[in-house]
């Protein structure tokens, strides 16, 4: 498994708890050194390099929350499709990240942000199949979301509960407080695309 744009390696380490072998790839020298020093497992390694130039074959490619930073994503997506039979590629949902009607949020590092239709349009020419899922709040985070709508953000500062509440609430959040679904994608926080890679060219047999 290859974790492209792995940053400081936290996600690569999580993947290595379950995968037979994981390689994290990132061009940032500080992130690379941190990852290599912090996360050590026999089945985990790190490679410093540009994701646009990485082309080692793998069983699975993971590429999370980075495609929005890429100036020319088509060439990279073609490369990913040839690298592995399956790729997991995620990006924020422009409709829930940016102000209403805006083309993108004010994040200066995001070159482009996508709604669900735009994301499909970006991915589908490069892969045999694309399943698009949305990430939503669940359990504690869903209750917190409903509390904010009901006015919680006006209450906790007045009662001086902000720090004690969030000091306990934030560490208690786990993967179970998120859900992946295929419906209501316009409301999703992020999109996760499960992409089936391009077929590898079969070697031609020698007729002689």
Quick description:
Helix content is 33%, strand content 21%. It contains eight helices and eight strands, in the order βαβαββαβααβαααββ. The chain has helices at residues 10-16, 29-38, 73-83, 94-97, 116-123, 139-149, 152-158, 162-172; strands at 2-4, 22-26, 44-48, 60-63, 86-92, 129-137, 178-181, 190-196.
| Radius of gyration, in angstroms, nearest whole number | 20 Å
Poorly predicted parts: 202-208
| Termini Cα gap | 39 Å
CATH architecture of the domain at 55-137 and 178-196: 3-Layer(aba) Sandwich
Q: What fraction strand?
A: 15-25%
Rough shape?
Answer: globular
DSSP helical segment count: 8
Quick one: how many beta strands?
8
How would a crystallographer describe the biggest sheet? Answer: 8 strands, mixed
Question: Average pLDDT value?
Answer: 94
Name the CATH superfamily assignment of the domain at 55-137 and 178-196.
Answer: Vaccinia Virus protein VP39
Spatial sequence of strands, sheet with the most strands: 3-2-1-4-5-8-6-7
Structural class: alpha/beta
By CATH reckoning, the class of the domain at 55-137 and 178-196 would read Alpha Beta
């Amino acid at each position: 498994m290859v974790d492209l744009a792995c940053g400081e390696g936290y996600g690569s380490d999580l993947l290595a708890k379950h995968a037979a072998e994981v390689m994290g790839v990132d061009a940032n020298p500080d992130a690379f050194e941190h990852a290599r020093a912090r996360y050590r497992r026999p089945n985990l390694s790190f490679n410093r390099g540009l994701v646009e130039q990485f082309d080692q074959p793998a069983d699975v490619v993971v590429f999370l929350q980075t495609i929005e930073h890429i100036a020319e994503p088509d060439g990279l997506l073609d490369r990913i499709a040839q690298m592995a039979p399956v790729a997991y590629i995620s990006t924020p949902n422009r409709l829930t990240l940016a102000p209403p009607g805006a083309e993108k949020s004010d994040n200066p590092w995001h070159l482009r942000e996508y709604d669900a239709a735009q994301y499909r349009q970006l991915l589908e020419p490069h892969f045999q199949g694309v399943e698009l899922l949305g990430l939503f709040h669940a359990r504690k985070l869903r209750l917190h979301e409903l509390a904010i709508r009901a006015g919680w953000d006006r209450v906790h500062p007045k009662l001086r509960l902000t720090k004690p509440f969030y000091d306990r609430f934030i560490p208690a959040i786990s993967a179970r407080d998120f859900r992946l679904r295929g419906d209501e994608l316009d409301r999703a926080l992020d999109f996760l695309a499960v992409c089936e890679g391009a077929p590898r060219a079969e070697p031609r047999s020698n007729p002689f």
